[in-house]
Amino acid sequence: MFKLGEYQDLYYVKKVDFGVYLAEMPEDERHVLLPAKQVPPEAEIGGKIRVFLYKDSSDRMIATTNAPKIAIGEVAPLTVREVGQIGAFLDWGLEKDLFLPFKEMTARVSDGDSVLARIYVDKSSRLCASMKGLYELLRTDSTYQKDDVVKGRVYEFSDNFGTFVAVDDKYSARIANSEDHRNLAVGDVITARVTDVKPDGKLDLTLRERAYAQMEPDAEKILSLIDSYGGVLPFTEKATPEVIMRETGLSKAAFKRAVGRLYKDRKITIEGGKIRRG
C-alpha cells in the first residue's frame, strides 16, 4: 500500500519516456511515477529506490527523490509563501506548496511567517498542514538539564496549563500559567531557562532569571507601579495570585520577594492593606 506523505522503498518496474514506474512489489499492478528528471542514472528494473510520496498539481500521486522539510508524524517550521481566501500555502521543499486551511490555524498567519506545523491526509486524500495537534508529536528525549538556557517557538496557549513551546522546534516544553505571558504570541521564538525536566522528559521553562537576579527588576517594576497609582498600591502580598498577576505581571512568590526587598531597603511601607512609597 502506498503511503502518502511518507518515505517508502519501492521497486523499479517499468521505464517510460517520462520516467520510471515504481511498485511495492515487482508483481504489483498498482504503480506510481518517478519523473525522468529524478531517475538516477544507475536505475535498473528490479532494483529499489527510496522515495517520498505526495500529490502533484494535478492531484496525482507521485514519487520524488527530493527530501521535503516534513513528513507524516513530524513537526517542523515552514515558511508561509502566500495567504489566500481559504488558507495559506507553505514552502515545504517540494514543487507543489503545502496547503494550510484556516480551520487548522491556531493563529492567523501572514506572508513570510514561519509556522510550526505537522502534515496530515484530509478527507479528499490530499496532504495538508496543521498548526494543531503538535503536542503529541514533539520529542521528549532532549539532553537539556535544569538551568540550561534554550530557544523555543510558542505554538499554543492553554488557560489551564500555560504556554506550550517547542524547544529547538522539536522538544516538548511548557511555561507555567503562573508566569505572565500576555506579551507572547503563537510563532514567537523565545529564549528561556529550564526550571525542571519531568520524569517523562518534558521541559518546564521560565522567561525569568533566577530569583536573586530577577529580584532587582521586579522591585523596580513594583516601584513604577506604585508611582502610577499615585504613590499608594491598593493591595499587598496578601492579595490573591490572580490579582497580583493581573496588576503586576508577577507570580505571587516573585511579588512577595520583591516587596520584601523593598521593605528591607526602606523604600516602601506596608499598612492597612496598602503599600506606600517609603
Poorly predicted parts: none
Bin the helical content.
Answer: 10-25%
Mean pLDDT: 89
Major sheet description: 5 strands, antiparallel
Q: Rg, please?
A: 27 Å
Portion in beta strands: 35-45%
Q: What overall geometry do the principal axes of the alpha carbons give?
A: elongated
Order of strands across the widest beta sheet? 3-2-1-4-5
Count of β-strands: 18
One letter per element, helices H and strands E, the order comes to EEEEEEEEEEEEEEEHEHHEE
Tell me the span between the first and last alpha carbons.
76 Å
Helical region count?
3
Oligomer: single chain
Structural class: mainly beta
Features:
18 strands; about 35% strand; about 280 residues; mainly beta
What would your notes on this structure say?
This protein is mainly beta. It is built from 3 helices and 18 strands. Strand 9 (about 115-120) and strand 10 (about 125-130) form a beta hairpin. Helix 1 (about 210-230) crosses helix 3. It is elongated. The N and C termini lie far apart (about 75 Å).
